[in-house]
Amino acid sequence: MRFSRWLADRWVMGVALLVLGYLSLPIAVVAALSFNRPSSRLSYDFNEFTLDNWRQPCATSDMCDSVLRSVQIGFISTVVATVLGTLMAFALVRHRFTGRSGINLLIFLPMATPELVMGTSLLALFVSAGVPQGFWTVVIAHVMFCVSFVVVTVKARLAGMDRRLEEAAADLYAGPWQTFRLVTLPLVLPGIVAAALLAFSLSFDDFIITNFNAGTTVTFPMYVWGAAQRGIPPQVNVIGTAMFVIALLLVGLTSLRGRRSRRAALPVAPTAGRPVTSATGRRAKSPS
Amino acid sequence: MTALAHVPTSTGQPPGPPPPPRRGRHRLLPYLLLLPGAAWLLLFFAVPLFQLAAASLYDPSGSLATGYALTWAFGNYPDVLQAYWPQFARSFGYAGIALVLALLMGYPLAYAIAQKAGRWKNLLLVCVVAPMFTSFLVRTLAWKTILSDNGALVGLLRDVHLLGPDGRLLATPIAVILGLTYNFLPFLVLPLYASLERLDHRLLEAAGDLYASPVQTFRRVTLPLSMPGLIAGTLLFFIPATGDYINAELLGTPNEYMIGNVIDSAFLVRLDYPQGAALSFLLMAAILAVVFGYLRRAGTEEVL
Amino acid sequence: MTGMSAKTTGRDAPAGDLRLVNLTKRFGIFTAVDDLGLTIPQGSFFALLGASGCGKTTTLRMIAGLEQPTSGQVLLGDRDIARLRPYKRPVNTVFQSYALFPHLNIFENVAFGLRRRGIRSVDDEVMRMLALVQLDDFGHRRPAQLSGGQQQRVALARALINQPQVLLLDEPLGALDLKLRRQMQIELKRIQTEVGITFVHVTHDQEEAMTMADTVAVMNAGRIEQLGAPADIYEYPGTAFVANFLGQSNLLAAEAAGPAGSEVPVTAHGANFSVPADRARADRGTVYLGVRPEKLHLADSADRVPAGHQHVTGVVTDASYVGVSTQYLVRTGWGGELSAFAANSGLGGRLPVGASVVAHWDPRHAFLLPRKPGQDDDRTAGLLDEPVGASS
Question: How far is CA C217 from its chain centroid?
Fold first, then answer.
């Protein structure tokens, strides 16, 4: 009886941990394979430990070129998509206009359409318009499917913002531009940064749409795809592991920073005199 | 029900409704803000769909070299359906089985993180998202190693006679379905988590107080209240899984090919645009039909 | 104060009264504020009192510049500021739920207005302001780390530091619990006396308005129902709405036939009463005869009624003991109900439910209000109404 009670309370957590194991297993394998010296080009089995792959990640130079290209495309697409999407989010949250439902549909549909359909239809457009495919057609495609995600992310942040804060700024002698710069932007910024990170990761990792519109341009996912037929160099796993570690560090750093600022701000018994100095110190840095 | 879930956090009076957006002075401003983004989406999302529709009606005897003529060749549709219905069926079949597996795994996971994890909540959430930190293709290739004929998993399954002595996992439908489940599981878990997280624990206690067994509590309270997340998660899983061809290509053989593989080769290998476009359009239509049918049965079209 | 005057051009000059002239605001077909005329004397503590949706907040927002009037003027002294943008007006607001900037610390929140006006050395002024609201040591904290009452005081300091000619307070105490609200009422009153700025306070809490304000304007459906000192309005309300919004009243449907000498005789439910002529807002035709519940006394027989008092007989149907007083509900001979409050002063016993009583009052405490023909029912605030001072 007592055991079945215990089991009833814990089985969900047990299943959850097993599923998390299923989700994490491939990453562990990628990390392990980054230290592997494969027995042959087409073998995927672990053979022998080596640090060579990490010492010479660019041993196959076209792979590193493809990573660089993906970063370039990701960067440009992110900047453009973030700007376009943020503007749209502001319009949707802050203004009334006719045609809102049409715009909402236009933003929603790309997120609900299979990538395959978006990729092939863009291909059909570029071919019939005689546009040569390459770096810039990939950027165009990436901006297209990132914009919607940016709009949704920024919109959520913006909609959660109290309009009275802006009214309070206006009431306290801030003109429209100052209100935007000193109140609106700082409060929306976390949403915009999150949207940009999302856009970059979507762009960097996209294969299907890129595959139909890249022409002879090779991004990192396309390199991996091609190499899968010819034999995967183990350095691919180095890149995969490095990406994972960098992303993990970013997440860890931001959560650590958040926690530290929360802790620093919290208890501190107020002592007479001290706040004056800290307030003065803060003033010197503050914009005005 | 949602009114019950809402528990005021302060005894004070809730703030009034936000003031309505200002009108008048800047009547053109919203359009200016929308213009670049909307133009981009129109030009590179909406217009191409029409182009794809047109391409699907091209004269099938044309070629990329000689040029295509729009002959309203509706015959392309029955032609491709007849030729590729097995791949179509496989796409929906594999995605459907993967969805069931993902629900069996994803619901307990989302529930455990939302309701049972306590202070480990954020860490576990990061673990769910973590796979997406690295490349989709590289992760899928890792399954090749895990499921390899010489790998520990296949060895184990052969030892316990779940697999015959020559039995394989790689290059079978099992591998493809496992890959699909794995790759899109986070998309199912995250929205589900979001709606389970909002679930007030006291509602479950209230159900228990009112003589509901744990199973009844789940059926009558937890499940209905997590419905929005469940619906969103299901769609976010099913749509990309149906259109996927990477798992079939990397983990399967031509016997496991899905419709995506056919479309890919029609556009990029055989350069048969009318056929590829017709297949793309059929895929989209089929997915939309399934999605709307599902939403109607689920009774909530507001998700859109 | 002295450090500021050099910078604040003209801001220190006495502004003069705040006058609203024919102020109207329509949202589509809905008229929120209807041809409002109002003069708020300089340096006064003025309360706009009304139920939610009566137009009081819209009026405040038009004074602040956050809402454009459909028509009419907002005059500060002789200057019409109705078309000025909010950041150009010498008016500051304490917002409902405070609207403190969450990304700035308390010091920067309070300094915000000074900095926007280009004042460089703000330290002394900010610290002086924080001292005024007793938050000297909180400058480096973020708003989220403060309690509701502290946030409220920051919001006040942030507005007051600009030395506005008019300070607007939009339900500033609405989010505080009862005890804190009492405390802040006294504190706000103290600060207003200290700085001498015109305060315009919007509230739906009649007790709050009466406690703090010199002048109260009761608003209903976009119009001012009555304006005056709290005691004057309470003792001699102008309309049936005011009689029951500010406190409670027993209003009996009655007929009057014009004044007779210094009295106005009325008949209600077949009985004759009279009211002094100077307490009659209407003296002919259909009227309400009003008596406040605490001015209605209960006696166990007619011969105990003091000379000069008027009375009706009835039966006690409900008695609620609320500590400071006991609130009775009395059913009269014609089926109406009257409400009577008896102070628990220790004199006289409590009456049981079912007891036959005589309800009597001094005619000098009664009043006559106009009544539209057709509104034939009595209007008695029942015991189930919310207790005095509690807010929704």
Answer: 7
Q: Using CA atoms, how far apart are residues B171 and B148, in angstroms rounded to an integer?
A: 9
Q: Is pTM, for the whole model, over 0.90?
A: no
Please check whether residue C238 lies inside any domain of the structure: no
Chain centre distance of CA A40: 35
Q: pLDDT digits over A56-75, tens only? A: 888 887 889 999 999 999 99
With vertex at residue B162, the alpha carbon angle to CA B158 and CA B163, rounded to the nearest 5 degrees, is 50
Phi/psi of residue B40, nearest 5 degrees: -60, -45
Instruction: Name the percent of chain A in helix, strand, coil, to the closest 5.
Output: 75, 0, 20
The angle, 0 to 180 degrees and rounded to 10, between the axes of the packed helices A115-129 and B273-298 is: 150
Residue A112 burial by Cβ neighbours in a 10 Å radius (0-12, 13-18, 19+): middle
C108: left (phi over 0), alpha (psi -120 to 50) or beta: alpha
Mean of per-residue pLDDT scores for chain B: 84
**Residues C253 and C208 reside in one and the same domain:** no
Please answer whether residues C200 and C172 qualify as being in contact, where contact means their C-beta atoms are separated by less than 8 angstroms.
no
Which among B9, B13, B23, B26 is the top mutation candidate for probing chain C, defined by the most C β-carbons within 10 Å of its own β-carbon? B13
pLDDT single digits (tens) A208-246: 999 999 988 999 999 999 988 888 888 899 999 999 999
Q: State the total domains in chain A.
A: 1
Distance from CA of B11 to the nearest CA of C (A): 7
Bridge partners of residue C236, in order along the sequence? none
Q: Which amino acid is at A245?
A: V
d(CA C28, CA C33): 12
Angle, to 10 degrees, between the axis of helix B227-243 and the axis of helix A115-129? 50
Please tell me which residue of chain C has the smallest CA distance to A280: C123
Domain that holds residue A220: 68-232
Please tell me whether residue C333 adopts helix, strand or coil conformation.
coil
Among A171, A184, A286, the residue to mutate for chain C (most C Cβ within 10 A):
A171
Q: Which domains does chain B have, with CATH numbers?
A: 89-261 (1.10.3720.10)
Q: Supply φ then ψ for residue C170, to 5 degrees.
A: -100, 100
pLDDT tens by residue, chain A, 288 residues: 567 777 767 888 899 999 999 999 999 999 999 998 888 777 777 778 888 888 888 888 788 999 999 999 999 999 999 999 999 999 999 888 888 999 999 998 898 889 999 999 999 999 888 899 999 999 999 999 999 999 999 999 998 888 899 999 999 999 999 999 999 999 999 899 989 999 999 999 999 999 999 988 999 999 999 988 888 888 899 999 999 999 889 888 877 776 655 554 443 333 333 333 333 333 333 333
The answer to whether residue B162 scores a pLDDT higher than 60 is yes
- SS3 call for A163: helix
Q: List all residues of chain C from 84 to 113 with a beta carbon under 8 Å from chain A.
A: 85-87, 91-93, 95-97, 99-103, 105, 107-108, 111-113
Quote the domain boundaries for residue C315: 248-380
Q: Give chain A's end-to-end CA distance (angstroms, integer).
A: 69
Provide the CATH number for the domain around residue A166.
Answer: 1.10.3720.10
Give C52's contacts in chain B (Cβ within 8 Å): 16
Q: Using CA atoms, how far apart are residues C68 and B218, in angstroms rounded to an integer? A: 53
Q: What is the DSSP letter of B255?
A: G
A26, B175 contact by CB (below 8 A): no
Within a 10 A sphere around the Cβ of C285, how many other Cβ atoms?
Answer: 13
Cα-atom radius of gyration of chain B, to the nearest Å? 25
Helices (H), A206-285: 208-213, 220-230, 235-265, 274-285
- What does the buried/exposed string (b/e) look like for C146-160 if buried means 16 or more CB atoms within 10 Å of the residue's CB? bebbbbbbbbbbbbb
Cα C134 → chain centroid: 27
